[in-house]
């Protein structure tokens, strides 16, 4: 029975629930990320938010602080899930290189023939908004990467509009989850600001109620101090990341493009203005996945290889056939010569006893007559027992013997 696509997936991704969820190979970092989010919010809810309820005249306002913290945290976790557990925009890999892009080059081999070498151009140009853009060929996925696509070495996939691979979410950030990634980072930034502000507000209430110093208020609520320090440190990371991606969105860049092409000073053909760039990021429809991980795999029929192991120049095949025909004709001529020589020797041996002097005189006359004519037969005589080629002198001698045999036969008919 054929398996499903996710079971035979060649990338490094991890799948859950029968291929319904896809993660990167470093999905083990997700529990750590969840711990960094849930732990401070839990401490805030227990040691800060519950006490702040009594500091307001209205219980509704106090309860709102706790509810906002919980809902905000759930929203951040949902965005984390949408970022980490979905296809980031993986380009399906090919099973074979694209035949229409193959280039055949010939190299001379040791035997003089030319052997073919199949090569694929490393780059080709495509038009983007009327501007030629060079795209590269991916040897792993056996395809030309679409514009703004790059191969992630961690996930071992080509990802459309590849931004970066985020270890905190355990997934590549691409065209299908970049929006959720930015919302996750920016929401985490706002959550840090919220926790820091409410913790500082509780310290302020303690100072006003006890009419003490800030150090005394901090001793009364140490968890508020811990949460303020933690939120301040986290704010530098997620806040800085949010600001950096705001700049990238406004200029329609990716993290990969910004770091790779920063020193090239090349024109960004994708920049359509700040407003249109933000609209493209947040208001455009998310592309559907190009992979059906739950589909059944189909066995591909064996591919007939049409490439020859050797390549011959045009007309070389005809030359080879003519050469083969000439060799075959030479072999047949050699066999005829051997047969004529054998008959001559047998006839000479049979008649040698009856009239040896007359036979010897006729043979001498035939040799004298044949020596006056230039030899016209040039062949290679093969002896059946030895399997070796005769020398040119042996060729001439064999030709003379044939002519002697024919002259002798004519003389016999005259007699």
UniProtKB/TrEMBL annotation:
Chain intervals for the UniProt region annotation (Disordered): 346-415
Coiled-coil boundaries: none
Bias-annotated ranges (Polar residues): 388-400
Transmembrane region(s): 30-52, 64-83, 180-203, 223-249
InterPro entries per UniProt: Palmitoyltrfase_DHHC, PFA4/ZDH16/20/ERF2-like
GO biological process: protein targeting to membrane
Catalysed reaction, written as an equation: L-cysteinyl-[protein] + hexadecanoyl-CoA = S-hexadecanoyl-L-cysteinyl-[protein] + CoA
Bilayer disposition of the protein: Multi-pass membrane protein
Location (main, coarse): membrane
Subcellular localization, as worded in the UniProt entry: Endomembrane system
Any one GO molecular-function label of the UniProt entry: protein-cysteine S-palmitoyltransferase activity
UniProt EC number: 2.3.1.225
Compositionally biased spans, kind Basic and acidic residues: 355-365
Residue ranges occupied by any Palmitoyltransferase DHHC domain in the UniProt entry: 136-260
Cellular component terms per the entry's GO annotation: endoplasmic reticulum; Golgi apparatus
Comment on protein domains: The DHHC domain is required for palmitoyltransferase activity.
Family: Belongs to the DHHC palmitoyltransferase family.
Listed name of the protein: S-acyltransferase
Originating organism: Raphanus sativus
Lineage of the organism: Eukaryota, Viridiplantae, Streptophyta, Embryophyta, Tracheophyta
Annotated gene: LOC130510196
């Amino acid at each position: 029975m054929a398996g499903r696509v996710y079971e035979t997936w060649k990338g490094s991704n991890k799948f859950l629930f029968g291929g319904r969820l896809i993660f990167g190979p470093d999905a083990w970092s997700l529990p750590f990320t969840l711990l960094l989010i849930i732990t401070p919010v839990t401490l805030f809810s227990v040691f800060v938010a519950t006490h702040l309820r009594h500091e307001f005249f209205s219980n509704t306002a106090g309860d709102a602080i706790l509810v906002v913290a919980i809902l905000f945290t759930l929203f951040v976790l949902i965005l984390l899930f949408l970022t980490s557990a979905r296809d980031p925009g993986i380009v399906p890999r090919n099973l074979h290189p694209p035949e229409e892009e193959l280039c055949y080059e010939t190299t001379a081999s040791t035997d003089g023939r030319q052997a073919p070498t199949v090569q694929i151009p490393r780059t080709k140009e495509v038009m983007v908004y009327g501007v030629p853009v060079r795209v590269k060929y991916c040897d792993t996925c056996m395809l030309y990467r679409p514009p703004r696509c790059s191969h992630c070495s961690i996930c071992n996939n080509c990802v459309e509009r590849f931004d970066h691979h985020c270890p905190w979410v355990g997934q590549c950030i691409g065209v299908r989850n970049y929006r959720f990634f930015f919302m996750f980072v920016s929401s985490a930034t706002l959550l840090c600001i919220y926790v820091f502000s409410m913790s500082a507000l509780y310290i302020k209430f303690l100072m006003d109620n006890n009419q003490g110093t800030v150090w005394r208020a901090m001793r009364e609520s140490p968890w508020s101090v811990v949460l303020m320090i933690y939120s301040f440190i986290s704010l530098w990371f997620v806040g800085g990341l949010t600001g950096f991606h705001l700049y990238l969105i406004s200029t329609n860049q990716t993290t990969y493009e910004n770091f790779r092409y920063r020193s090239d000073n090349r024109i960004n053909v994708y920049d359509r203005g700040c407003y249109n760039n933000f609209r493209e990021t947040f208001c455009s429809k998310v592309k559907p996945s190009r992979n059906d991980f739950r589909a059944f795999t189909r066995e591909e029929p064996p591919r007939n290889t049409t490439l020859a192991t050797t390549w011959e120049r045009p007309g070389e095949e005809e030359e080879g056939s003519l050469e083969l025909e000439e060799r075959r004709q030479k072999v047949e001529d050699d066999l005829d010569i051997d047969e004529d020589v054998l008959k001559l020797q047998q006839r000479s041996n049979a008649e040698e006893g009856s009239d040896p002097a007359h036979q010897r005189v006729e043979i001498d006359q035939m040799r004298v007559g044949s020596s006056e004519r230039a030899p016209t037969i040039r062949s290679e005589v093969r002896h059946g027992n030895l399997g070796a080629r005769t020398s040119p002198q042996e060729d001439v001698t064999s030709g003379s013997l044939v002519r002697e045999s024919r002259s002798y036969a004519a003389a016999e008919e005259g007699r």
